[in-house]
Amino acid sequence: MAVKFLTQADGKGWTLVKRSRDNQQVQLPHYLKVNYLRMENNRDYFIPYESLDHKDTEFSVTRKSDGSSYLVDGQHLPSATVIFNPKTTHLWYGTGSYQVGPIWAVFTPNPDLPDGTYDLEIPDYPHVEFGDAYLAQTPYARCWFRIRKGGANTLDTRFLHTGSVSDGCVTVKDVPYWTKIYNYLFNHRKGDGLSVGTIIFNRYYD
Questions:
Q1: 117 near 200, Cβ under 8 Å?
Q2: Which end of the chain is more exposed for a tag (fewer CB within 10 A), N or C?
Q3: Cα separations (Å) of 184 from 16, 72, 123, 179, 188?
Q4: How far apart are CA 73 and CA 169, in angstroms?
Q5: Domain range spanning residue 44?
Q6: Terminal-to-terminal C-alpha distance of the chain
Q7: Statement to judge: residues 89 and 164 lie in one domain
Q8: CA 189 to chain centre
Q9: 126-156 as b/e, with b when 16 or more CB fall inside 10 Å?
């Protein structure tokens, strides 16, 4: 057994795996931290250490055509930080001299969120229905990060994602920029087994 990280197979942030208990196919997100168990019949078996729905469940993934594995050595970076001003609809990511922004986003309160710090979850599943329309501009349009406050559910359908409209989500309207935001977020972790970091709502930040 060893700590490994699941890499993306589709170039869009996801890898198709098989759940051992029922052979159900599931899409898991890029750079998920897992416990590597064994290789058997050209498949690697593992158990995720993290994620809301799949932690502690055994999965397997077929090896690549060249025989190499989608499970690799690596490490997570510290908690990511995103700052959003819903008044100006400006968004920043990163900290200190590495902070990038402002980036154009939009937020339609449904309901409103007060200023404060909210968790950004590891992507849960490919959001095909509303993401595919933007794949020509960013390969990671299906990767959405759920917004939760203090680890408790704020609203099941509230996410940070890219697109053109908001229904309670923080939507990055500068769609091509989403690739850079995704590349910043995917390998960071807050340390709770659920989140890549936090998003801070601050109506005075600019």
A1: yes
A2: N
A3: 23, 19, 13, 9, 7
A4: 34
A5: 2-72
A6: 47
A7: yes
A8: 10
A9: bbeebbeebeeebbbbbbbbbbbbeeeeeee
pLDDT tens digits for range 79-132: 999 999 999 999 999 998 899 989 999 998 877 888 999 999 999 999 999 899
Supply the mean pLDDT for the chain.
92
Query: Could you tell me the strand order of the sheet in which 43-48 lies?
Result: 25-29, 14-19, 59-62, 43-48, 32-40, 2-6, 71-72
How many domains would you assign to the chain? 2
User: Of 38, 72, 106, which marks where a domain is finished?
Assistant: 72
**In this structure, is residue 206 part of a structural domain?**
no
191 and 93 share one domain? yes
Contact 102, 9 (CB under 8 A): no
Going by pLDDT thresholds of 50, 70 and 90, the confidence category of residue 182 is very high
Count of helix runs (H) and strand runs (E) in the chain: 2, 15
Q: Which amino acid type is present at position 109?
A: P
